[in-house]
Amino acid sequence: MEETTTAKSVFEFLTARNPEVDYPTPSSQSLSSRPNWFRPKQLKLWCEFSFQTLEAMYGGRLMDEARQKGRPLPPYPYLKPAIDCVIDNESTTLNLLTKWNHTIVTASLDVTKTFHPCDWVPRGRGAKTESSGPIETENKIKHPPGRRCKDIRDGNKKPSSTRLIPDAGGCSSSYRNSPRGPSAAAEQLPKEYKTASKWRSSDVLQGKFIDKTGSWIPGTRRSNKTKPIEQIYTYCVNLGCRYGCILTTGEAFIFRIKPRTAKPGIANLSSPGSIKELQTTLANDGLMEYVSVPWDNHSSGDLDKYKNLTVNLALWFIHILAGNRHEISWDYGALTSEKPKPQPNLPATAPEPSQVASSLKRSNESQRDPLSRGLRSLSKKRKRRVLDEDAIHFSFSGDQEFAKQSSDYETDQSVQTDSGSIPEREREMTAGSQTSEERLDLSMRNGSRSAKRHRGRSGKISTQARER
To answer: What confidence tens digit (pLDDT) does each residue in 232-287 have?
Structure first.
C-alpha cells in the first residue's frame, strides 16, 4: 500500500488502490428500517455519470486541474491492516471510510476549490437536516401499536422521517470561513454508510426486487435488502437534495433523483408551495438514477491511459457537482452543459468582541458635540495633595512647573472662549481656574513651613543623640 508515498497529482491520488478488506461473519444481518420511508417508483442506470463526462466537464478544465502535477497533497493515510481493514459492522466501516476515503477526497477537494465543491462533513456538522414541511404520500402510513401519530397528509405535523439525520453529508466550501460555520448552510449531499457484508446494490438491482424496467416487483416492500435505498432516498426528498450516495467498503452507490414525469412550464421553485409540490411528487412518483462504482477499481501503470471511475474519483466528482447545484428540480440538463456556480463572498473571520466595543466607542465619540468635549476637559479639577504626603518632596519636585503650565494653559483657554456662547455655570468654572496660581502659591508656602519644621525636628533629634 502507498501509505508512505505522496501522489504527484489529484488524479493519481484519487485513483490509487483502495486497501484490501477482511470480512468476518457479522453478528447480525439487520439493517435500519422504518415504515414511513419513501420509495422511488423506478430505478434506472445513470449512464451520464461516467469517466467520459468527467473529462468533458467545464470544457475539460476539471480534468486538466486533476492531472496537473506538483499540487500540495498530503501522503497517503497510514492504515494498520489488522485493525483498520477488518470490517464486520458500521463502526468499523465508518473508521476505514473516514481514515482512507474521507482523507483523500477532502484533500483533493481543497486543492481544486476553484470549482466550488461542497465539503464532506461528518454527521451533525452540516447543517439543516429537516425539510420545510410535511410531505404527502399516496398511501396511509401504518404506525407501530401503542403510538398514535397523525397521518402526514393531515395538518402541519412533520413525519418522523424528517427528523432523521444521515450518517454524513456535504455543505458548501464558501461557508468554511463564515462566522456561523457549516451550520449556516443547507445539506447538499446526504450519505449513508453500510457494511459491505450485509448490503450490496447488486442484491437489489440484479435480484428479485425490480423488473427489467426498474420498477419494483409487488411484494418486495418488506424486504430488508431494499431498506438502505428507501432510507437515503427519503433523506434526499426531505432535504431537497438531488444527489446522494450509499458507501460501503465494497462500492460507492451514487445517484440522482427527480420526478418520473416532468411538469412542462414549471421552472420557478422559489416559493415554499412549489418546492413542497415537487417533494410530494418525488415521494409518490420519483425516479432514482444510479451508478455503482466498485471498491477494487484503481489505476496502475500509465495514468494517461486509465479511463475508469474509482470510488474516490467518483466521490470527488459528485462533491463538485453538488457544490455547484444540489437542489431538486423537475428535470435537469446535461451535466456537460453546466458551468461552475459563483459563490457568495463571506467575511474571512468574525470580529472579536473587543474590536466591536472599540468600534462602537469611536462611533459614539465622533457623534458628540466637540464644544461639549472641550468644556468637559477644561472644567476638570486637579486633585489636591493629601495631608500626609511628603511636603518636602512636593516642594522640590517638578510638579510645580507642570502645575504652573497647566494653570497658564487653562487661563489662556478661558480667555479665548467667547463667554457669551457658553452656559453661566461653565463660565464660573472657567473663571475659577484663573485662581489656581494663588492656590499653588499657598500650597508652596505651607510646604516650606512644613519642611522647616521637619528640619528643626531632625536637628533636635541629632543633638540629643550626640549628647548621649
So the answer is: 999 999 999 999 999 999 999 999 999 999 876 555 666 667 889 999 999 999 99
For the beta carbon of residue 150, count every other beta carbon within 10 angstroms: 13
CA distances to 287, 289, 353 from 199, rounded to whole Å, are 21, 19, 51
Q: How many CB atoms lie within 10 A of CB 55?
A: 14
Crossing angle for the helix pair 370-379 and 424-432, to the nearest 10 degrees? 40
What pLDDT score was predicted for residue 468? 46
Dist CA 214 CA 204 (whole Å): 10
pLDDT tens digits, 139-193:
444 444 443 334 333 434 444 444 578 999 998 866 555 555 555 568 999 999 9
- Determine the angle formed by the axes of helices 227-239 and 272-285, rounding to 10 degrees: 170
Q: Residue 296: name the closest of 281, 280, 309 by CA.
A: 309
The CA R_g of the chain, rounded to the nearest whole Å, is 39
For 26, 126, 143, 288, the CA distances from 253, given in Å and listed in that order, are 21, 21, 30, 11
131 vs 444: which has the higher pLDDT: 444
Judge contact between 152 and 135, C-beta under 8 A.
yes
Q: What is the DSSP letter of 390?
A: -
118 pairs with which residues across the strands?
172
What residues contact residue 328 under an 8 Å CB cut-off, 6+ apart?
236, 237, 240, 241, 242, 257, 258, 275, 278, 279, 282
230 Cβ contact list (under 8 Å, min separation 6)? 37, 38, 39
C-alpha grid cell, residue 86: 477488518
CB 297 within 8 A of CB 310: yes
Residue 431 binned pLDDT confidence (cut-offs 50, 70, 90): very low
| Burial group, residue 238, by CB count within 10 angstroms (0-12, 13-18, 19+) | buried
Q: What is the pTM of this model?
A: 0.68
Here the cell at position 68 is: 496537473
- Single-letter residue type at 243: Y
- Please tell me the distance from the alpha carbon of residue 246 to that of residue 354, in angstroms, as a whole number: 46
Residue 206 pLDDT: 87
Q: Which of 44, 101, 71, 140 is nearest to 315 (CA)?
A: 101
CA pair distance 239, 234, nearest whole angstrom: 8
Q: Are 138 and 284 in contact (CB under 8 A)?
A: yes
What is the distance between the alpha carbons of residues 339 and 336, in angstroms, rounded to a whole number? 8
